[in-house]
Amino acid sequence: MDMKKFFLLTTVVALLASCGSKDKGELVGVQGKKWHPEKPYGMELVPGGAFIMGKADEDLAGVNDAPAKTVTVRAYYMDATEITNSEYRQFVHWVRDSIIRLKLAVLADEVGKVPEDGGIGEFAFKDADTANMSVYEKYMFENYTGLGPTGYEGRKINRDIDLIFDTAEYPDEYYTEVMDTMYLKLEESYNGQRTWDVKKFKFQYNYMDIKEAARNRGIKRSEVIKKEEVEIYPDTTVWIRDFAYSYNEPMHNDYFWHDAYGDYPVVGVTWQQAKAFCEWRTINKNSYQKSRGATFVNNFRLPNEAEWEYAARGGLQAATYPWGGPYTKSDLGCFMANFKPVRGDYAADDALYTVEAKSYEPNDYNLYNMAGNVSEWVNASYDPNSYEYISTINPNVNDEQNNRKVVRGGSWKDVAYYLQVSTRDYEYGDSARSYIGFRTVQDYMGTQVTKKNGKK
Q1: Where is the Sulfatase-modifying factor enzyme-like domain (predicted)?
Q2: C-alpha triplet 407, 283, 435: angle, nearest 5°
Q3: In 145-301, where does DSSP find H-type helix?
Q4: In b/e form, how buried is each residue of 342-363, taking b as 16+ CB within 10 angstroms?
Q5: 173-180 helix and 85-110 helix, angle to the nearest 10 degrees
Q6: HSE on the CB side for 2, CA within 13 Å?
Q7: pTM
Q8: Residue 302 falls within a domain, yes or no?
Q9: Is the Cβ–Cβ distance between 80 and 360 less than 8 Å?
Q10: Which residue range(s) make up the domain with 406?
């Protein structure tokens, strides 16, 4: 093509582009969907700001791992309460049901059953019927489905039809075969009740190690995408193992699954399980967002140590406890939290073990039980010297090689020292305890909200 023809073609293209444009040739930016911040259900907005992190008074225990330091954190949402048994059960049921649906779909595929056949066929993969696929879905199915160790990666399970749990209503022998694999063996059952094999309740998720990618700029993207598989059922035996020579069998038998404890904080979860819950909560919410064509939300996650302490203080500087301090009783002589007061009188605060997650008075950020009830996992590894070298803006230390993970807030079995907002403690990330739970946070997006400007 000679230069004259090329110039003419370029001019025509430019004219066509200009004529079809709505921006009138001005720099108006790319216009996306209108976005408005939406407060997540059950969460409270914690405005960003600076505060003095660490011990304001003498460290009576002599640990000296929290020297005072001024730091600044950005705005975020935080759960008003600790994650409850009922909320965690939603996670467990989702994982259990997903595993059942996948097994049903695989078996339906193996025996050649489709929805029109009824029975297990109704639970076949969504792509069992290719007639109703969009062009994109068909392309993805033909080019990417099954690229993995099982051969079923990328295939969508059917969540539109309800699972059947009543054995008298199982539709066929194939369905019965799948359900049989989800329970413990008959010889392991007792009192005529067959129990779920909770070891099979495993949640898989992928995440990108952004810090590793930032440190190694030449690394391949595939090398920083990590895969995790976590058994997510709480360890109910913690009620027995944590207390030798103590009768806590009723808590072991009933605490997690019985509706009487639905609004109580979940315990017996490891740091890894708490992180898995955060990943599931993000997936669950964004699946709903996708179904209605809405913008995806930020990830739910565990708070870092500075965020937790800032939220626990509720805007009060140099306070000993979330309600101020330095006392654990109100003016009326009532205890302000659930802990172990009066030299071991567990019942002095009207609670023997945990209490409902929305108990006692919330702090000034409307957050409940930031002291007492259960200690809470945070996204930080414990280093007694970390306050000496952390950043002063959004500080966080989480060494993946350090399995000692920070817990904050104290619990129902702790003395008052551990309820102080500045007190640090730790547990091993793969350990579960009857006195450790967690709550989640989500980053706030949009015009920055700070304690000074008071915007909401």
Answers
A1: 43-441
A2: 20
A3: 173-180, 210-215, 238-241, 249-254, 271-291
A4: eeeeeeebebebbbbbebbebb
A5: 130
A6: 1
A7: 0.92
A8: yes
A9: no
A10: 36-81+233-456
